[in-house]
Amino acid sequence: MRIVYSYHAKKRLKEREISEETVRDIIELPEYTIKRGEEIEAYKKVNSQMTKIVYVNKEKYIKVITLYPLK
């Protein structure tokens, strides 16, 4: 499925040096997810640090809202 990024998410990708491949991997194979209304939070450990992706699953694409490593 096609993944698109909000302006905010694009900024966070660059700031936090997280690749689009990593985002796709977390969305497709998360360790676990939490659904909050329309939004889905996907979690996965990347380089020994848990990373969170918040996205919305639309009919024809996935829209990433934000992403960040957890402390």
Shape by Cα distribution: globular
CATH top level is Alpha Beta
CATH second-level architecture: 2-Layer Sandwich
Structural class: alpha+beta
What is the overall pLDDT average? Answer: 95
Q: Enumerate how many helices there are, as a single number.
A: 2
Count of individual beta strands: 5
Number of domains: 1
How does the major sheet shape up? Answer: 5 strands, mixed
In the sheet with the most strands, the strands line up as 1-5-4-3-2
Would you kindly provide a written description of the structure presented here, covering whatever features stand out?
With 71 residues, this protein is an alpha+beta fold. It has a single domain, classed as YaeB-like fold, CATH 3.30.2310. The chain contains 2 helices and 5 strands. The protein has helices at residues 7-16, 20-28, and strands at 2-5, 32-36, 39-46, 49-57, 61-69. Strands 1-5-4-3-2 form a 5-stranded mixed sheet. A hairpin with a 2-residue loop joins strand 2 and strand 3. It starts with a strand and ends with a strand.
